[in-house]
Write a structure and sequence with these properties.
Layout lengths: L4 H8 L3 H7 L4 H8 L7 H10 L4 H4 L5 E3 L6 E3 L16
Antiparallel strand pairs: 1-2
Helix pairs in contact: 2-3
Amino acid sequence: MTNNIREIRFRQGISQKDLAKKADMCQSVLCAIETGRLKPGRNDMQRVSDALTMNVSEIFPGEKMELKKDSAECLPAPAESTAESMGDTHGF
């Protein structure tokens, strides 16, 4: 998964160690995410984006997060394909 963590960190003048602390994660985990060796879960993506005060999609291009109704929990956006678009018109 591509991300812009390194570029954003440099622009903001923040070290990887400091970002990891702000995001409440181990520096080794942040390093693995930043270099693309580890695919972050939605909680990790949200913590990194909160620590950088940016939207998830600005840091992780192609990742869309939306708020779950009646909750502050972020969920991945629904996939483009639906039962209807796949030919299922029975409503099951």
